[in-house]
Specification:
Elements (H helix, E strand, L loop, with lengths): L3 E6 L5 H9 L4 E7 L3 H11 L2 E3 L2 H4 L7 E4 L3 H13 L3 E4 L7 H13 L5 E3 L7 H12 L5 E9 L22 H17 L2 E9 L12 E8 L4 E7 L9 E6 L3 E5 L2 E6 L2 E6 L16 H14 L7 H20 L3 E2 L3
Parallel strand pairs: 1-2, 1-4, 2-3, 4-5, 5-6, 7-10
Antiparallel strand pairs: 7-11, 8-9, 8-15, 9-10, 11-12, 12-13, 13-14
Helix pairs in contact: 1-8, 4-5, 5-9, 6-7, 7-9
The structure holds nicotinamide-adenine-dinucleotide (NAD).
């Protein structure tokens, strides 16, 4: 079977999820890893049996590498993506696309200008059985019209979590709980609700004053073009990281997601519609287990010459909601979408 040569830039926390997925994938062959921390790059290369670099631009010169995974801090996604696309590599970048809208637009432009290669953005939770089932319920209309939704993310992040060079700062992380943790839930609401008409939101730093510049808490009200309304609350200031909750109310039933288990509520009965896939990767449970499914799907699209569906513009949607909540909070106004 044909496979593509692969490199991973950034050997920090999330990289092992990518590296394990690549190792288990016959469509990909890991050629190199990159990290400015040489010791970490070397150790990772030894573990996965590949070459290592400390300068990603050197790695980009290799002809036997066709796909680059970007697993670095948010502010590095845009320059690395642009360089890799220009070097003729396909790019799969971790969420969020970037740390601000201007940077994200350089990525969208580079993808437009280099159409021989593809840009994919990680939103692995779209591959969860529960997400797929919710989307199916919306699209099929089996429970009648979608009426409204809510998303709740109540997690815990201690000061120690932010002790890195890029987290907790506007310039490098681009925000806090919204851009880093809750963007997955916003992506899900967007995917289910469709085109957005307007959003109003507010952010605050409730528990980490003096520790982080960015918000640890946010809420928002989203109006979709089809009339559906969603409320959303996210915080890193809770005492525990508890399962994400999403509620989707239709004319004839309600779907409730708790963690990755999806319940169907109709009248007095509650049934389980979708259950989580077991996490046997030894990774943090809240990351979910679906990276492997998205990564496989990305490579399958590349090898079949098909356009990958979570591309730059698709990855931009939840990111734009995040950015517009920041803007709305600053202005104290609702942001209207004209396109
Ligand atoms: N999809 C998910 O569920 C999920 C979960 C966790 C993290 N993430 C995302 O993954 C990305 C990385 O997060 P993390 O927690 O692994 O970060 P991290 O800080 O643990 O790792 C980043 C790595 O990048 C390296 N690095 C910095 N500058 C570099 C450069 N110029 N060249 C090469 N390497 C460089 C650092 O040395 C570090 O090892 C972020 O975008 C984050 O939001 C996604």
């Amino acid at each position: 079977m044909k496979s593509l040569g692969t490199a991973v830039i950034g050997c920090g926390s999330i990289s092992s999820v990518h590296l394990k997925a690549i190792a288990g994938l016959e469509l990909a062959e890991l050629k190199a890893v990159v990290d400015i921390n040489e010791e970490l790059a070397k150790k990772t290369a030894e573990t996965y049996g590949c070459d290592y670099y400390t300068d990603y631009k050197e790695m980009l010169q290799r002809d036997d590498i066709q796909v680059v995974h970007i697993c670095t801090g948010h502010y590095l996604h845009a320059p690395m993506t642009v360089d890799a696309l220009k070097a003729g590599k396909h790019v799969l970048t971790e969420k969020p696309m970037a740390e601000n809208k201007a940077s994200a637009h350089t990525m969208l432009d580079a993808a437009e200008e280099n159409k021989d290669v593809q840009l994919g953005v990680i939103f692995q939770n779209r591959y969860n059985p529960s997400s797929i089932r919710m989307k199916q319920a919306v699209d099929s209309g089996e429970f009648g019209k979608l009426l409204c939704m809510k998303g709740l993310v109540t997690w815990s992040r201690t000061p120690a979590y932010y002790e890195t060079e890029w987290k907790g700062k506007w310039a490098t992380e681009g925000g806090g709980v919204l851009i880093n943790q809750a963007i997955h839930t916003l992506d899900l609401l967007h995917w289910l609700g469709g085109d957005v008409a307007s959003i109003k939101g507010s952010i605050s730093n409730d528990s980490l004053e003096g520790v982080i510049e960015v918000e640890d808490t946010a809420h928002a009200h989203i109006e979709f073009r089809n009339g559906v309304k969603a409320i959303f609350y996210a915080t890193n200031a809770y005492g525990r990281s508890t399962p994400v909750e999403v509620e989707v109310i239709f004319e004839k039933a309600t779907l409730q997601l708790r963690g990755d288990t999806l319940y169907l509520l109709q009248g007095d009965t509650s049934t389980v519609l979708a259950e989580p896939v077991k996490n046997d990767l030894g990774e943090k449970a809240y990351w979910g287990v679906s990276h492997q499914f998205q990564i496989r799907d990305f490579y399958a699209h590349l090898l079949e010459g098909k356009h990958f569906w979570i591309d730059g513009p698709e990855g931009y949607k939840a990111f734009r909601l995040v950015m517009d909540i920041y803007e709305s909070s600053k202005l104290g106004q609702r942001i209207n979408y004209t396109e």
